[in-house]
Each structure stands twice: as C-alpha cells, then as structure tokens.
Design brief:
This protein is of the alpha+beta class. The protein has two domains: about 110 residues; about 120 residues, Sandwich (Immunoglobulin-like). It is built from five helices and ten strands. Strand 6 and strand 7 form a beta hairpin. The termini are far apart.
Length: about 325
C-alpha cells in the first residue's frame, strides 16, 4: 500500500516539490531545497509556439466558371439543327434541357462578383425556364402535338427561356464577363392547308366507283384508299366540309385517314396535332349493271355502323 505525507505550510511560503535525488555536495532535503538557493523557490520557463495563421483561400475567377456552364448549353442547342428525324430531335432536346438545368443549378451555388448579382439571378431563372420549355417540347412530340422536326423546332423558338438567356448574358458581358451563346435559328409555326377536294395522290380513275367523305371533325383530314399497304387515291377534306373521289376502279380497298393542322406538301403529312386511323372494314367496289358508291363520316356518329382503329404512324401508308 502506498502512503503519502501531507505537509502543512505557513501562509505566504511557496515551495516547489521535486523528486528526491541522491548525490551532490551538501545533499538535498525532502523538499528539494538545495544549498545555494537561499531558501528561494525555483521556477522553470515554458515556451509556447506562436500559431501560424491560416491563409484565406483565393476564390476562382468568375469568368471561367460562367463559361464552363454556358458553353455546354450552347453546344447542345446547336445539335438541334443537325437532327434529321423527330427521334434525333427529341434526343437533342433532352441533352439541351439537361445542360440548361445543370448550368442553372451550378451558377446558383457559385459565388459571383457583386456587380453581376442581379444578372446572375436572372440568368439562373432563364436557364431553368429554358430547361422546362425544352422538356415540354419533348412531351408534345410524344403526344403528337408536334409531328415534324419543323414544327418541333418552331415550338422551341417560342421558348421564353431561350429569349431570356441572351438578355441576362448581355448584362454579364457589360459587367466584364463575356460568353459565347448561339441562339438557334428557328422557323415559325405555320397553318398551311390545301383546297378542299384536292387530290393528294391520284391513281387511275377509270372506273365507276364513288367515295363520298363528310368531314364533320374539328381538323382537316386526308382520306386514302389503299391496297397492300400502299395508298392508291388520297383526297384532302377540310374540316366541316365534304368531298368525293369518282372513277374508282373495281377492287377491295382499305380506308385510312389522318387529321391535323398544317399540311406539309413535301412531307405529305400534318405537322401538328396529328392522328392516324383506319376503318376496320374494307370497301369493295364492283361494277356490273350498277356501280358501287360508299359514304363515310369522319366523326363519331350515333347509330354509326363503321368502327375505326388507331394506326401507328410507321404503319400508315403515305398519302
């Protein structure tokens, strides 16, 4: 068992406790008061190192940060011009939308000089709107509200975000932070149509058969008589109007019809709000002592005796 000695000291007396040591002239007492110290307490100096100040980190230049976010958006928008199909255009829209969203998020978190605080906020808002607008165009392609590259591109041109981004970047340039941002040249939405009764495709009309079409729908339509998946005769029928094909030769035909807005004569298709359908039953034309005449109505009719089905665009015979 260890024992300790408790020593009482008179008030005002200071002592330094030290370990006992052997040797040395004159010896040492229990409290380490060596000869020559005249009874004065001993003291030792302690050295405390001076702390090194932490350097303040230098902020990266804002110009390269701005350019690093804007360049990918501009490059992605440039790919829209090269898209040769709606699928390719939709893919390019997705890339541009993602780039715009990433740029808005990144610039929203990056430190900016006080001189461009307002411009940066406007730019972040514009990039977010651009991303939303491009995503909407992709949705309209899927819903067939736009059915051609030209009409999809025209809808991109109506984007409020696409108009707002250059305006915000102009303020950045004025403050000393220029960037390169190329706004794609977009066409205008159109509402082209043909005269009612125009033959879009006219095969041999040397028979006696007749097809009467009543378009009571809300959009223009093109009706096609087809054989073996190929259109033989196609006629343009305006909304709320009637038209006829005369001289149809004998045979059995499938009847397809498409409706929409803005007829592109080169594509032979509607570019907006398009739909594709066919009558489930075929139409047979026979000429003997009499000739055959069929009449169809292009809208749901109470008591109607003809059923129709939607058709995939890829399986629809070109008018």
């Amino acid at each position: 068992m260890k024992s300790y000695i408790k020593v009482g000291l008179a008030a005002g007396t200071a002592l330094l406790l030290a370990a006992c040591s052997s040797g040395g002239s004159g010896g040492s007492d229990a409290f380490g008061l060596g000869s020559g110290n005249s009874g004065a307490p001993s003291a030792s100096a302690t050295s405390t190192p001076t702390p090194t100040p932490t350097p303040t980190p230098t902020k990266p230049p804002y110009g390269p940060i701005l350019t690093g976010y804007i360049d990918p958006v501009s490059a992605a928008l440039g790919k829209l011009n090269a898209a040769a199909s709606l699928d390719a255009f939709s893919t390019a829209l997705q890339e541009a939308s993602t780039a715009a969203s990433s740029a808005g998020s990144g610039l929203g978190l990056a430190d900016e000089p006080a001189a461009v605080y307002t411009a940066r906020r406007q730019l972040v808002t514009a990039l977010s709107q651009l991303s939303t607008d491009l995503t909407k165009v992709r949705g309209d392609i899927k819903k067939k509200k736009v059915c051609a590259v030209t009409s999809a591109f025209a809808e991109v041109g109506q984007s409020e975000g696409l108009k707002a981004v250059p305006a915000a970047l102009a303020q950045m340039t004025a403050a000393g932070y220029p960037t390169t941002f190329n706004v794609p040249q977009t066409p205008q939405l159109q509402t082209r149509s043909l005269d009612n009764g125009t033959m879009v495709r006219e095969g041999r009309l040397r028979g006696h058969g007749v097809l009467n079409v009543d378009n009571g729908g809300s959009a223009d339509a093109v009706v096609s008589l087809a054989k073996d998946g190929k259109s033989i005769h196609s006629i343009y029928v305006g909304k709320g109007k009637k038209a006829s094909i005369e001289g149809i030769e004998d045979g059995t035909y499938e009847v397809f019809f498409s409706g929409g807005v803005d007829w592109d004569a080169t594509l032979k298709a509607f570019t907006q709000n398009c739909d594709f359908s066919k009558f489930d039953d075929t139409m047979a034309y026979e000429t003997g002592r009499t000739y055959t005449s069929w009449s169809i109505t292009l809208q749901p009719t109470v008591g109607g005796n003809a059923k129709t089905s939607d058709v995939d665009e890829d399986k629809f015979p070109q008018p």
